[in-house]
């Protein structure tokens, strides 16, 4: 059995990890070999998966907005939440894809998912890659890291509440702050630094984008602002029913909550700000591989292999399962690779809650 003892009933619930400076050279060599073999993105898989998820998700959203039966409406809303969450998760792939690896995908994804779901790609591009920076991971300069295992339980509640309210925050950003910021350089600076990144670290301040990203940012921010202002205007005019608008916000909020739960178990969140080796970053991250099937829903588009992703950030999502199978076969039982594999969402959430309670008592 190759699952970590963290999820197999170990009394401590926390196996000892090697020093943060330790590098497992055998693991890194095996990963590098896979990177050469599996790094080519397959456009047919990207297009089919994303378009199919979006189409079914919007169909479910339509059912939730219009069904006379409460049961049917709830079923539609749940389907929409999970499918649109999957479609939106391609923002992660976009942040890693090489230019022209999947021609046209960036534009089409923004049009059918990024803008309607109020998370245009510029909010992740140039941000998420900082999380993979060798010297930034787990430090105060990492936009996607908080030492949650060392924080009190109340922090987890605030963390989840922020996700639930995120769609309202996005609507305010795109419909109110962006237009106003065109009139105020000071406000514009604040919007760009503080409110233009899908980040969880409240201390993170987004650096200025390069010329290429600045052009893309301006385009998609403008489109997202027009979408949000237009949506509010249509609701105010009675063209879009209030019920439909509230269902839309509720579905987006549900998707954000699922993603935030996934984020809770994406890492062990134990680093206290020190620089970490690649191996240490891998061991601080989490895979939830088969035989479980539920991760397909709450960690879609390869996110169930989050630890492998930190070893091989350039690997396309459809190759991560094969990379896992090869690494399991190549690395002996008890070596570093096996220690980042866990059984279930529930066990990881409970582990984090226990750690937070201990932090509170300390």
UniProtKB/TrEMBL annotation:
GO terms for molecular function: oxidoreductase activity, acting on paired donors, with oxidation of a pair of donors resulting in the reduction of molecular oxygen to two molecules of water. InterPro entries: FA_desaturase_dom, Fatty_acid_desaturase. The chain crosses the membrane at residues 44-63, 70-88, 108-127, 156-176, 226-252. It comes from the Bacteria. Residues 72-338 form the Fatty acid desaturase domain. GO terms for cellular component: membrane. Keywords: Membrane, Transmembrane, Transmembrane helix. GO terms for biological process: lipid biosynthetic process. This is Fatty acid desaturase. It comes from Sphingobium phenoxybenzoativorans.
């Amino acid at each position: 059995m190759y699952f970590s003892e963290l999820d197999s009933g170990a009394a401590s619930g926390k196996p000892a990890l090697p020093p943060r400076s330790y590098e497992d050279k055998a693991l890194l060599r095996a990963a590098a070999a896979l990177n050469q073999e599996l790094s080519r993105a397959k456009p047919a898989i990207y297009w089919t998966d994303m378009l199919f998820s979006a189409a079914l998700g919007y169909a479910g959203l339509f059912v939730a907005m219009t069904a006379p039966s409460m049961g049917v409406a709830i079923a539609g809303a749940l389907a929409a939440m999970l499918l649109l969450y999957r479609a939106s998760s391609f923002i992660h792939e976009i942040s890693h894809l090489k230019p022209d690896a999947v021609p046209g995908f960036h534009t089409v994804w923004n049009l059918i998912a990024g803008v309607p779901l109020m998370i245009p790609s510029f909010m992740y591009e140039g941000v998420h890659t900082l999380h993979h920076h060798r010297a930034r991971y787990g430090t105060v300069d990492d936009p996607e890291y908080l030492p949650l295992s060392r924080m009190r339980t109340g922090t987890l509640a605030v963390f989840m509440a922020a996700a639930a309210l995120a769609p309202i925050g996005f609507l305010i950003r795109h419909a109110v702050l962006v237009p106003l910021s065109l009139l105020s350089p000071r406000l514009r600076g604040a919007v760009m630094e503080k409110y233009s990144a899908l980040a969880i670290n409240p201390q993170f301040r987004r650096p200025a984008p390069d010329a290429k990203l600045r052009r893309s940012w301006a385009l998609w921010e403008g489109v997202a602002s027009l979408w949000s202002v237009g949506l509010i205007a249509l609701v105010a005019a009675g063209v879009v029913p209030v019920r439909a608008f509230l269902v839309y916000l509720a579905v987006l909020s549900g998707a954000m909550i699922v993603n935030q739960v996934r984020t809770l178990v994406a890492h062990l969140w134990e680093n206290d700000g020190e620089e970490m080796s690649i191996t240490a970053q891998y061991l601080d991250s989490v895979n939830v591989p088969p035989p479980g099937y539920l991760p397909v829903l709450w960690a879609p588009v390869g996110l169930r292999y989050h630890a492998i992703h930190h070893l091989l950030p350039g690997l396309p999502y459809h190759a991560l399962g094969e990379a896992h199978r090869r690494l399991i076969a190549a690395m002996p039982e008890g070596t570093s690779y096996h220690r980042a594999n866990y059984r279930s969402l529930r066990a990881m959430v409970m582990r984090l809650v226990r750690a937070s309670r201990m932090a509170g008592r300390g």
